[in-house]
Amino acid sequence: MTTTTQPPALTHGRGTWGRTGQTLAWRAGWTLAVVIPLVFLAIFFAWPVAALVARGFSSDGTSTLGAVAEVLGSARTWRILRTTLTLAILGSAASVLLGIPGAYLLYAVRFPGRGLLRALVTVPFVLPTVVVGVAWVAVLGPSGPLAGLGLEESLPAIVLALVFFNYAVVVRTVGGLWSRLDPRAVEAARSLGASPARAFRTVTLPALMPAIASAAALVFLFCASAFGIIMVMGGVRYSTIETEIWYQTTQLLDLPAAAALSITQLIVVTLALLATSWTSARQERALRLRGDASSERRWVWRRDAFATLVTAAVALGVLALPMVTLVVRSLRSRDGWTLEHYRALGTTVGRSLPVPVWVAIRNSIVVALQATLIALVLGVLVSLVVSRRPRKAAARRGLRLLDSVFMLPLGVSAVTVGFGFLITLNRPPLDLRQSMILIPIAQAIVALPLVVRSILPVLRAIDPRQREAAATLGAAPGRVLRTIDGPFLLRGIGLAAGFAMATSLGEFGATSFLARLDRPTLPVVIFRLIGRPGEANFGAALAASVLLAVLTATVMVIAERVRPATASEL
Questions:
Q1: Can you say how many angstroms the Cα of residue 74 is from the centroid of all Cα atoms in its chain?
Q2: Backbone angles phi, psi at 202, to 5 degrees
Q3: Are 363 and 519 in contact, with CB atoms under 8 Å apart?
Q4: pLDDT < 50: residue spans in the chain
């Protein structure tokens, strides 16, 4: 019997070509995963920002460097810069000092209801800055519960609002590391006679310093760009770089001044991002050294009294009071309890608005869904690439640089991005001035860093030996990605989607430039109502703020329920 066999050379050739084709396809896929987000960021972030700065330096072909130098040398500019740095430093310091006890109580101690309290503490971070400003105005204003303190439009009031907004950043960042510290080091110090305070100061605090420094750098960045809070609460006394950029571009049309301020802000942001990148790298090294031991322990009053009292004071006096006041004031009028402010949301509020408020609510939801989809697609691609662990040092440095590039939108003024859209995307081939897609794109740019920061820690938590074992068993690279990375990725997408949608719902800086009069979003409507006199307008603004807060809180609570067990960077 004759058996027909294929020539060995031919068989080997087909196998080689098959493997080569898979390798080329795999490399092409990773290349696209890098190129697509970079092209998107280049077109819709780098180009608008660079165009605005370039236009500020030249007008009709004439250099305006003298005007820019005049702005940078003026006393007003330095006063604004000093105010920006003062608010950022005070807000960061207060958030860190108050957040460390909260990080301990909510992440290193077990007690009933801890999960719900974690979610509620996180909600203020994703609330729109306009809502935060309105809530504190309701607390400190003439009819507010703390009106007697005389803090309206004051520096302490703005710092309190910044703490309200950024407290969760410190709690989550520091608490995520604290919950995984190896308790044996503290136990050894205590067995050698160290008091609890000394053990914390000499053992626990040094271990937490990378997370504390990383949280402080992030909070500084957020405080320096809290546009909505300053717009609502700052009045005429307090202007920051971001609000001044808005004023110079929209009210005075002074592009050289806006360009000079944008450059100043970019310098501040770059320094903060470098600090964040450096501290994040230190935190990753610390996490690799600690092992999988958990330092969580049961709540005991004698030991945990200080952290409990401080956290309760912050939760009730800083976090809950503004929101409760916001709700109560939205249900009150001169005649007593009423739902009139909520009924007014179905109208144009005495013709103060071009469309009813419910139209703005619908617009906000639709735009937020579109922005979330865009941010998730780009964020997943970036996270998959940056989470790789290449062996070459040059490749590792390249990935760190790529990670930092996609963090830039965190600190660059959304006002700058929005105005840049108007002067770049106004002619073919990208004439998008009349397209509503501009708003979702702008909001996706703002949300993208938060999406990456939510997904990336989950992918980095994967033990590389799992991928190596799957590859050793014959799994192709695509199958390894699908079966090993895929389940982790799905767990992280829930929280990322929550952050993206909540951020998009409350985005105000860029949207204030791009929203048409007949297609406003809810934050834009709230700001317009606040700027108009009359109890009806302010009451409708309060009611709209409550609805926006409930909407973002609901999104975030759902996202927190599907949060992965691994610690997140936010």
A1: 32
A2: -100, -20
A3: yes
A4: 1-15, 17, 286-293, 566-568
Written as one letter, the residue type at 74 is S
CB 94 within 8 A of CB 168: no
Residues near 531 by beta carbon (within 8 Å), at least 6 away in sequence? none
In 3D space, the residue among 466, 525, 453 whose CA is nearest the CA of residue 169 turns out to be 453
What kind of fold does domain 29-49+338-454+492-570 have according to CATH? MetI-like fold (1.10.3720)
Q: Give bridge partners of residue 109 from the DSSP assignment.
A: 297
The H-or-E segment that residue 133 falls in is: helix 129-140
| Choices 1.10.10.60, 1.10.3720.10, 3.10.310.10, 3.20.20.450: CATH for 64-330 | 1.10.3720.10
Question: Contact at 8 Å (CB) between 326 and 138?
Answer: yes
| Assigned token pair, 388 | 């790789």
Scan for tokens 């919950």, then name that residue: 179
In whole angstroms, what is the distance from residue 213 CA to residue 226 CA?
A: 20
Tokens 């989550």 appear where?
172
Other Cβ atoms closer than 10 A to 154:
17
SS3 content of the chain, % helix, strand, coil (to 5): 75, 5, 20
Tens of pLDDT along 193-231? Answer: 878 788 888 888 888 887 888 788 888 888 887 878 888
Per DSSP bridges, beta strands 332-333 and 336-337 are: antiparallel
What pTM value is reported for the model? 0.77
Full 3-state SS string of 320-371:
HHHHHHHHHHHCEECCEECCHHHHHHHCCCCCCCCCCHHHHHHHHHHHHHHH
Q: Where are the domains of the chain?
A: 29-49+338-454+492-570, 64-330
Q: Contact at 8 Å (CB) between 500 and 376? A: yes
Q: Which residues pair with 297 in a beta bridge?
A: 109
Q: Which amino acid is at 235?
A: G
- Tens digits of residue pLDDT in 266-316: 777 777 767 666 655 555 554 444 444 455 678 778 788 888 999 999 999
Beta-strand runs (E) in 93-227: 109-110
361/366 Cα distance (integer angstroms): 9
